[in-house]
Design a protein that fits this description.
With about 300 residues, this protein is α/β, with parallel strands linked by helices. It is built from 11 helices and 9 strands. The structure holds phosphoric acid mono(formamide)ester.
Length: about 300
């Protein structure tokens, strides 16, 4: 039984197969509408979510399966003090697969150690968000045609943004990847990513706090919001929250085929006027998330391609 706790839980070949399956589902969703008949997905969300929870539920329904779950810690027995281990032992009798989001780093890993069903990490604290990253890879692959030889700018909250951490971890496995980190000094990427991922894999990267200066170099710009819920101090959040705002004026510096990705939700970091720019693909990215999660459910449940 396989769990997805980190994007690196899939080998490069497994990742290629997953993205290919997601692409086939995207092009012919009707072929896959019965493959999960009789199967159930549990969504265990201890932290708020719109896209991840609902796209998982939509994915399972598109595959002909059913969903059950909770959308906040308050509406589950964790409010009475139940442990993750006991919760997942019980859920294993009620569902065939589960997606878990939790504010504590490592909670889905703990769940996987006590689970009788595949566990998918749907975001754990500031640590990882593998299904967002897989969605990001699918978006880049479908729209750029390749995941190699890209200069990727990651902008915003690089300290607390788990989607950025997961994306960097996943992209270093491709060749010709270069990162440009765009953040305020206080929100730079954590030391462990610098040492254990970027330096360990000899990945070139530069750092700046001026977005306009680097826009002409980018193939992909990955914007993120400043993660208010991870700050200890509201004053720091207010001071940093609008450090970068991408607008139509700044977009005049960007390449004509640069993609703008954002895991969403957006706060102020992309002006709504940018939404109509063909390079703005963040809503398309959220749509790809459904097909990616359909492919992931099929893969973890080891369901064959329909006839
Ligand atoms: N991208 C993402 O994780 O969005 P939600 O928090 O709405 O699930």
């Amino acid at each position: 039984m396989k769990h997805i706790i980190s994007p690196l839980d899939l080998t490069c070949n497994e990742l290629d197969d997953l993205l290919s399956l997601a692409g086939r589902i995207y092009r012919h969703p009707e072929r896959y509408s019965q493959v999960c008949n009789g199967k159930k997905l549990a969504t265990l969300f201890y932290e708020p979510s719109t896209r991840t929870r609902l796209s998982f539920e939509s994915a399972m329904m598109n595959l002909g399966g059913n969903v059950l779950g909770f959308s906040s810690a308050d509406s589950s027995s964790v409010a009475k003090g139940e442990s993750i281990a006991d919760t997942i032992r019980v859920i294993s009798y009620y569902a065939d697969i589960c997606a878990m989001r939790h504010p504590k780093e490592g909670a889905p890993l703990v769940a996987s150690q006590f689970s009788g069903i595949p566990v998918i990490n749907a975001g754990d604290g500031g640590h990882n968000h593998p299904t967002q990253t897989l969605t990001d890879l699918l978006t880049i692959k479908e729209l750029k045609g390749d995941l190699n030889n890209l200069t990727i700018g990651v902008c915003g909250d690089l300290k607390f943004g788990r989607t950025v951490h997961s994306l960097i971890n996943a992209m270093v496995r491709y060749s010709g990847i270069r990162f440009i980190m765009i953040s305020p000094d206080e929100l730079k990427i954590p030391e462990y990513l610098r040492n254990e991922t970027l330096d360990a894999n000899n990945i070139p990267y530069t750092e700046t706090n001026v977005l306009e200066d680097v826009l002409p170099e980018l193939d992909v710009l990955y914007m993120t919001r400043v993660q208010r819920e991870r700050f200890f101090n509201e004053e720091d959040y207010i001071r940093l929250k609008d450090s970068f705002i991408l607008d139509n004026n700044k977009m005049t510096y960007a390449n004509k085929d640069m993609l703008i990705l954002h895991p969403l939700p957006r706060v102020n970091e992309i002006a709504t006027e940018v939404d109509s720019d063909p390079r703005a693909v963040y809503f398309k990215q959220a749509h790809y998330g459904v097909f990616l999660r359909m492919a992931l459910i099929m893969t973890l449940l080891e369901l064959p391609e329909p006839e």
